[in-house]
Design goal:
alpha/beta, six-stranded parallel sheet, two-stranded antiparallel sheet, 14 helices
């Protein structure tokens, strides 16, 4: 079976992406693509991870898990989404890297689903946005301790992806910048479902609708209806134009407050991130979905 693992990252609209995928459940099922509800597999995977701390999984464990997830239905491709796959938000940054448990967890998943064809999907985000959200639940003193111990110059998503490729070189990785997600939402959904570009899906503008006013979305959809032959790049330019006029400011503003940070810190982190994204785009075995 082809098993698609969507591992977040945290605060990158992961559950909203799952909801968009679930809107296509019936159409996908007709094509042999299963999108089970998260309640079916998230606790089961957590139990499997805990069990593997004391013993390797039995030969039957995979089949039992698949049967429990699919509930007797059949599928050639299954999409499993869990933002905590590589650890809860408190483990999103540690030991000078993003998701220090990621490589270990991916190795565990390869062990659980031995013989299946795994593919990993994970969004990345500008550290200037990601770190404040990842540390949001820590107290002020703990935040200061964590931030002061960080080497921001060395904190790169490409290092995390490299470690994943090293531990599981047969598992292709697809990633994208969370900041680009409203413009590439349908591309992400199609990629996870294994569908060709341009294939009709439901929910391709779900994220855009969360950050644009109702009037803006109404006008945007009317514009698309009047211009049915637009290419995907043309649609993205139109999205950007409508967002510039109809964006909901309270939905796109982010809190960037961390101890010791200032505008120069944010600008520097953004510059490092842009260079890191370019590095990721050239990594073997990694597909970067970009506008």
């Amino acid at each position: 079976m082809k098993i698609i693992l969507h591992a977040g990252a945290h605060n990158t609209e992961g559950d909203r992406l799952l909801r968009s995928l679930l809107r296509n459940t019936e159409d996908f099922a007709a094509q042999g693509i299963a999108v089970p509800g998260p309640g079916r597999y998230r606790p089961l995977l957590n139990d499997a991870f805990e069990a593997m701390e004391s013993a390797a999984p039995s030969r039957e464990a995979r089949d039992v898990l698949i049967d429990a997830i699919l509930d007797e239905s059949q599928a050639k491709r299954m999409i499993l989404s869990n933002p905590n796959l590589f650890g809860h938000p408190g483990k999103a940054v540690g030991d000078g890297e993003f998701y220090p448990l990621a490589a270990f967890r991916l190795h565990q998943l390869e062990t659980i689903f031995a013989g299946d064809d795994l593919e990993l999907f994970i969004a990345i985000s500008n550290p200037a946005l990601f770190l404040p959200s990842a540390l949001a639940n820590f107290g002020a003193a703990r935040k200061r301790e964590i931030v002061s111990a960080m080497d921001l110059e060395a904190l790169r998503w490409s290092d995390m992806l490299k470690s994943l490729r090293e531990v599981a070189p047969e598992v292709p990785i697809t990633t994208w910048c969370a900041e680009d997600a409203p413009f590439i939402w349908p591309d992400i959904i199609r990629a996870m479902a294994g569908l060709p570009p341009g294939r009709k899906i439901v929910g391709g503008f779900d994220l855009l609708g969360q950050i644009m006013s109702r009037d803006g979305m109404r006008r945007f959809r009317a514009y698309l209806a009047d211009h049915p032959d637009m290419t995907e790049p043309q649609k993205r330019r139109v999205m950007a134009a409508f967002l510039s006029k109809f964006a909901l400011e309270d939905q796109i503003e982010e809190e960037l407050d961390l101890p010791g940070w200032n505008d120069a810190t944010i600008e520097h982190l953004t510059s490092l991130y842009e260079a890191d994204v370019a590095r990721i785009g050239a990594m073997p075995g990694v597909r970067l979905i970009a506008p």
